[in-house]
Amino acid sequence: MTPWTFDEWFxxxxxxxxADREVVFHxxxxxxxxxxxxxxxxxxxxxxxxxxxxxYAVDPVPVFVPPTSNDLALHRDAVYRMRFEEFFxxxxxxxxxxxxxxxxxxDAYGSTNVTGIGPWPHPKIKLGGGGGGGNxxxxxxxxxxxxxxxxxxxxLVADLDFLTDIGHRTREGTRAELGYTGxxxxxxxxxxxxxxxxxxxxxxxxxxxxxxxxxxxxxATGFDVRRDLGELALLAxxxxxxxxxxxxxxxLGVRRSEFADAELARAFP
Amino acid sequence: MTTFHLGGDKRxxxxxxxxxxxxxxxxxxxxxxxxxxxxxxVRELLRQDRRGLHVVGSAHSIDVDLLVAAGAxxxxxxxxxxxxxxxxxxxxxRRAAASGAITxxxxxxxxxxxxxxxxxxxVPFMPVRGIKGTDIEGLHPxxxxxxxxxxxxxLVVVPPLRPDVALVHAPLGDAAGNLHLDQPYVLDERFxxxxxxxxxxxxxLAPTAEVAAAGVTVPGHVVAAVAEVxxxxxxxxxxxxxxYDRAHLAEYLALAAADEIEKYLDLYVHVGEEAYRDExxxxxxxxxxxxxxxxxxxxx
Lengths: 269, 300
What we know:
Oligomer: heterodimer
Order of helices and strands of chain B: HEHEEHEEHEHEHEHEEEEHEHEHHHHH
CATH class of chain B: Alpha Beta
CATH architecture of chain A: 3-Layer(aba) Sandwich
Helix content of chain B: 25-40%
CATH class of chain A: Alpha Beta
């Protein structure tokens, strides 16, 4: 078996959250999700419909994944490129099955803050912003939420400084109460482990990476760590096919820009 | 009321084109992230010392950050401003948000789209599917909630967005202001129809027959002025002519992060557009089409 690094394994786990025959989309500034979609398409989800980030190209075969997501390298030779309007209309009416979302902060219900850290109106750190997430996180079929910064202790928080994108509930109420048409987060994958969501829409820890202890997760998580641990296929070692697909689509290693150096040093088996 | 711009030759100097943008104007910025941004117009607005702009757009980068750094902006209403994982947060935008030098009225791509469509259609509002219960809603006193008369659903509704001017850069256009763009068009078509006027730059002016054969994306009847400015989107990309100039962007970010924007303005803005263009390396930025290895090299 070819050795692999943690960043590769993490992207493979994200890819496995995609089912075949799903319409799947990633936002910009999301290299791990971007690479994961192409890994899924080339392995277990050949009939997924992949909408490429900021180019809205349908099922492109990128020359390589560049570090900026509105670039011709991503959509060269795509047979069809949606218009901006066409994609957002599809996402708002519920025709898109899955989107990947991350955030500077993520709460127990999978809502995210990508707007700013610290009190508004003068946040200590103005983050980039949510793109289209404020609407389409409400209406897309289901969400895969991810972060590569769980260990910092500042990412999975009890209370968001600002709620940009919608998880299973906001301060105002649940998805049902707010009338959101989409299903909300299904998975939360972090560099420490993977969570699903219970009937209350609260995250439940389902698996740990092999070099991580429960104490690592509890120490780094700002909300109650509910758990239901067992064998989790999502976190099984990558296959040769998955690694080959990943390495082919991301020769620049753009995915690595999401990780701290210590995480990049994690090597397996 | 948005009216068409009829007749005549729309060609203008860059200075005259940018002169159509007034202090305090609401300015829609074309392009997206770091592609096909109207950078020559942005630089010219700074040469003309424009102030108090309300900038609107979807996802943007050096266009907004540079305008903010130079003190030209009062209100930012984009869905994202930054340089993604490649080069990180937008330093001037971040600093101005923290100090209160700008008002951040962050929006969402789909909300901006709904507002532009309301302006285009001449209707007083449009409903959106999300936003309800997010803190984005709280940044916008101009939004409201309304009950659908047919289904009883309570939705966030948003008013029309009618920019005073849309700044658009195109690889190709003609003297009548017809513009050809390559996909993704991002919001440029919507901005063109919802705004009072389009002010455009093109890398190359061509005969109408050539632009028509390439395909007209933005028609001349919504364009007030067009200036021929080669490399008018640089340092953002405008394929097939030029890729993203990563080295230039990194230099900008280093100066902006160190709060030395005056140095950048002296080097690249105050010198004038012709001198700016002399600094562009056309061979390197066109090398993407030589081979995959050359293309990859542009991102290292």
